[in-house]
Design a protein that fits this description.
146 residues, mainly beta, OB fold (Dihydrolipoamide Acetyltransferase, E2P), three-stranded antiparallel sheet
Length: 146
């Protein structure tokens, strides 16, 4: 089984806003930081103006390890966006991080055959610079399974 070829893919560039800018600024530094409610302690992603659990408004971005497990996945056999056609087929994954339960990140599984995407598989974050301002958190199969 061959791996998806991302070398010819020109990814769309996210446009940070007031809520998402701390996430993107941290990623550019090679740090995965997620929004955490200071009232109830819950992590959430994507960022919102209020806590999705308790509705508090005291939210801060805190670094997380970037280790977790595939929560859900889909194999993309058709490109809804032509820019992704070169990578077909590829695994689009949702990751739940060990130290941020409930916060789910959408990403791609890189450097592994798409058939390796399975619910529960251990993954770890890597950072893919898209330009000088935006670095995209992506995931690899974890080297250490502990």
């Amino acid at each position: 089984m061959t791996m998806s070829d991302w070398s010819a893919v020109t990814r769309p560039i996210p446009v940070p806003n007031e809520l998402t800018r701390p996430f993107w600024d941290s990623a550019r530094q090679g740090v995965l930081a997620l929004q955490r409610c200071q009232a109830c302690g819950a992590f959430q992603h994507p960022p919102y103006a209020t806590c999705v659990k308790c509705m508090a408004i005291d939210l801060k971005f805190e670094p997380v390890s970037g280790k977790g497990a595939i929560y859900a996945y889909t194999i993309m056999y058709h490109a809804g966006d032509r820019r992704f056609a070169a990578a077909i087929p590829y695994a689009s994954i949702i990751v739940e991080l060990d130290d941020a339960p409930g916060a789910l990140l959408a990403a791609n599984l890189l450097e592994a055959p798409y058939t390796e995407a399975k619910v529960g598989r251990r993954v770890e974050v890597v950072f893919e610079p898209l330009n000088d301002d935006i670095t995209l958190p992506q995931f690899l199969l974890a080297r250490d399974t502990t």
